[in-house]
């Protein structure tokens, strides 16, 4: 590819096609992210109301361990499939898909099973994680999580393969709608009839098994809708290239998911289970604030991989710029609401949770930096730079762990939030610099400036409401009403520069 080809302006029809495809997937992702946020809030609220902050801390310490291990044991294979399956479909007609699935699934299954064995066989693991819980109860709880670990690991790899076929519907249906809804439906009768830590932990775990079964059926459906030719006997399979990409991603995924949950484990081990429960509620709120970014990432990743595979670099860069505008314009107002009224929002979870208000403000501020750089880390991965991504996440996780060990014993929840916030800023700034200087993906243009203007305008109104009404329910209501008015006006004013019309056009096309 010559330099002029790499820097040429994208043709309008090809860019619009990529944007439309991303918009369709993004709206599915948005619907799933909203459902996930709502039902995750409901579940955390049910658990905290039923067993209190301390009991919730015990449950979510197990959830943190389970989530970190399941994301570790998939060995980066899900992201590998997201990158390699669309490339193989575009370049080779999908001849290597069968080999890719075998290459990804077998090691992940073995790793999930191996990781579950210590949880089931060695009680010392449970007592180390839950030192404030009676040993027999801690052992029973951790064994329960270990039994479900292999199936959950395989399910996530299968969903990665389905995303490789260019659809986010299976992932959204299983991970963002199916599991959260089923967890709440199971938890409601448990809370009503027999609220206990083991019963509520089971309510969280059972949907992971159902999700893995649903993921298998979803992948079968994707493959039936797009059958691929069989690879000739004796032909090479891309397992070396696959694991060269996936192996660094396997390590970086540990850092990614560890950043979300390591604060819970540190608080449980170095502080109290009650503070771990408060921190879990804060984490749910912050994660909900990134729902737009996650929705866009789900749709952008396979499309970026496809464009880069066929050397449409200019179109890929344009897609990154447009998707970043969407993310900033729609996410900054959400974080503005939470940062201005943290105590009121946390009070939903019960008495005592408002003590984490300052910690929530710290994480909202860091998350606004995360949103501002767009999906820079997705660009690194889909461009095949998993080693770069590993370096970025390793540095950020080291910062988080070092800061956390130093300040959590003294500051508690605020210390855990400060360590995570520092890691978020370090990771995203490093990724943005690499994407800009080494890959040539820019984010700042007129549309980006306008998107920032939308977020700042709404935030200004919210701050004014907070100063006049305080961190109260009435202040939140007034701020949201005025904020929605400002948001609607500014979004309508700058809709052309933000390319939001492409979203509407994509929806009309899908409806037709």
TrEMBL record:
Membrane topology term: Multi-pass membrane protein
Keywords, comma-separated and alphabetical: Cell membrane, Membrane, Transmembrane, Transmembrane helix
Top-rank taxon, per record: Bacteria
Transmembrane segments: 27-48, 55-77, 104-129, 141-162, 250-271, 321-345, 357-376, 388-411, 417-435, 447-467, 473-492
Places the protein is found: Cell membrane
PANTHER family given in the database record: O-ANTIGEN TRANSPORTER-RELATED, PST FAMILY PREDICTED COLANIC ACID TRANSPORTER
Name of the featured protein: Polysaccharide biosynthesis protein
Taxon lineage: Bacteria, Bacillati, Actinomycetota, Actinomycetes, Kitasatosporales
């Amino acid at each position: 590819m010559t330099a002029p080809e790499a820097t040429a302006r994208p043709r309008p029809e090809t860019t619009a096609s990529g944007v439309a495809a991303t918009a369709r997937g993004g709206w599915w992702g948005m619907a799933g992210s909203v459902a996930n946020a709502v039902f995750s809030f409901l579940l955390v609220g049910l658990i905290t109301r039923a067993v209190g902050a301390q009991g919730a801390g015990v449950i979510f310490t197990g959830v943190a361990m389970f989530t970190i291990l399941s994301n570790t044991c998939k060995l980066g294979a899900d992201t590998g499939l997201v990158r390699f399956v669309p490339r193989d479909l575009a370049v080779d007609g999908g001849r290597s898909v069968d080999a890719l699935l075998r290459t990804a699934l077998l090691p992940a299954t073995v790793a999930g099973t191996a990781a579950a064995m210590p949880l089931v066989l060695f009680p010392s693991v449970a007592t180390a994680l839950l030192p404030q819980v009676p040993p027999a109860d801690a052992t029973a709880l951790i064994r329960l999580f270990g039994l479900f670990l292999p199936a959950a690991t395989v399910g996530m790899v299968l969903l990665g393969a389905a995303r490789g076929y260019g659809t986010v519907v299976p992932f959204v249906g299983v991970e963002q709608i199916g599991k959260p809804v089923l967890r709440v439906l199971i938890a409601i009768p448990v809370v009503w009839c027999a609220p206990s830590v083991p019963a509520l932990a089971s309510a969280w775990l059972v949907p992971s098994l159902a999700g893995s079964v649903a993921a298998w059926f979803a992948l079968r459906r994707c493959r039936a809708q797009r059958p691929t030719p069989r690879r000739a006997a004796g032909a090479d399979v891309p397992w070396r290239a696959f694991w060269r990409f996936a192996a660094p991603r396997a390590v970086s995924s540990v850092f990614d998911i560890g950043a979300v949950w390591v604060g819970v484990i540190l608080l449980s081990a170095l502080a109290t289970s009650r503070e771990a429960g408060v921190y879990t509620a804060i984490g749910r709120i912050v994660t909900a604030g990134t729902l737009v970014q996650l929705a866009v990432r789900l749709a952008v990743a396979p499309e970026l991989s496809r464009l880069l595979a066929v050397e449409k670099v200019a179109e890929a860069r344009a897609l990154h710029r447009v998707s970043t505008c969407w993310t900033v314009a729609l996410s900054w107002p959400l974080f503005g609401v939470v940062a201005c009224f943290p105590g009121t929002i946390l009070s939903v979870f019960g008495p005592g949770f408002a003590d984490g208000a300052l910690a929530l403000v710290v994480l909202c501020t860091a998350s606004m930096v995360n949103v501002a750089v767009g999906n820079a880390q997705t660009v690194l991965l889909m461009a095949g730079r998993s080693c770069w991504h590993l370096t970025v996440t390793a540095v950020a996780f080291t910062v988080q762990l070092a800061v956390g060990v130093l300040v959590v014993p003294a500051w508690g929840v605020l210390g855990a939030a400060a360590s995570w916030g520092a890691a978020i800023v370090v990771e995203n700034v490093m990724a943005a610099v690499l994407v800009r200087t080494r890959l040539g993906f820019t984010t700042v243009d007129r549309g980006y400036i306008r998107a920032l203007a939308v977020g700042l305008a709404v935030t200004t109104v919210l701050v004014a409401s907070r100063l006049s009404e305080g961190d109260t329910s009435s202040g939140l209501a007034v701020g949201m009403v005025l904020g929605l008015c400002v948001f609607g006006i500014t979004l309508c004013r700058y809709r052309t520069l933000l390319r939001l019309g492409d979203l509407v056009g994509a929806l009309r096309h899908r409806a037709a």
